UniProtKB/TrEMBL annotation:
Subunit details: Homodimer.
Cellular component terms per the entry's GO annotation: cytosol
Enzyme class, broadest EC rank: lyase
Phylogenetic classification of the source organism: Bacteria, Bacillati, Bacillota, Erysipelotrichia, Erysipelotrichales
Protein name: Orotidine 5'-phosphate decarboxylase
Length: 235
């Protein structure tokens, strides 16, 4: 498993994204989410691929199995490295997502990794119990959703780094944990509830950390990225 820091490109449009990306000389692992993809569509993926960056296309699909399968078939043609769904869509929907990816991936290419969001890092245990009406602890809910995800044939989950250790213990080190909600101790947590530092995420065994605002809003994004990279990879 290649561990990596994934930079969330939560920008309004192509111009803002290009201005950010142009500051970096190295090849990055970046995440394109709803904001940027809905503004620019597949051309933003094409641009980032041409620049040799790896891409996590984070559209968090959650619909009936037939719709998710067809959507994934189209996303597979974009040649990204990773995509995601919501595990709450249930096992049949997650199986359909993988089927769509397999069908849509051009011959000779690897299908993108497919991971499932368990509980958003902006959700606390209290919110989950009172507003999503799940009468369980948050770690148990993440573990159960992760088991369903594995059963459906996906490659891993999105969770908080706080849950990573147990997930790897119970589901194996090959089962990918991609963990947003990353902040330096001095950063504002914003809308995130389950927050972990890059060093702690490394200790807990996250495979990927997703970092947005801590890098994109930094005075010097390149230096901040390099620092977080060192902290996470233990260099
Ligand atoms: O799937 C995701 O990437 C995701 C899942 C989750 O549970 N929490 C979460 O924050 N994210 C994404 O990770 C990024 C975190 O951004 P920052 O809070 O700015 O670091 C955002 O682009 C979110 O959409």
């Amino acid at each position: 498993m290649n561990k990596a820091v994934i930079i969330a490109l939560d920008f309004k449009n192509f111009e803002e994204t290009k201005a950010f990306i142009d500051q970096f000389e190295e090849s990055l692992y970046v995440k394109v989410g709803m904001e940027l993809f809905y503004a620019e569509g597949p051309q933003i993926i094409k641009y980032l691929k041409e620049k040799n960056h790896k891409i996590f296309l984070d559209l968090k699909l959650h619909d009936i199995p037939n719709t998710v399968k067809s959507a994934m078939k189209n996303l597979a043609r974009l040649g990204v490295d990773m995509v995601n769904v919501h595990a709450a869509g249930t096992i049949p929907m997650m199986k359909a997502a993988v089927e769509g990816l397999i069908e849509g991936t051009p011959e000779g290419e690897n299908r993108p990794l497919c991971i499932a969001v368990t509980q958003l890092t902006s959700t606390s245990e209290e919110m989950m119990q009172e507003q999503i009406l799940i009468n369980e602890t948050l770690p148990n809910t993440v573990l159960k959703y992760a088991q369903f995800t594995k059963e459906a044939g996906l490659d891993g989950i999105v969770c908080s780094a706080l849950e990573t250790k147990e997930i790897h213990e119970k589901l194996g080190l090959d089962f990918v944990t991609c963990t947003p909600g990353i902040r330096q101790a001095s950063d504002s947590v914003d809308d995130q509830k389950r927050v972990v530092t890059p060093e702690k995420a490394r200790e807990l065994g996250s495979d990927y950390i997703v970092v947005g605002r801590s890098i994109t809003r930094a005075q010097n994004p390149v230096e901040t990225y390099q620092l977080i990279n060192k902290q996470f990879l233990g260099l």
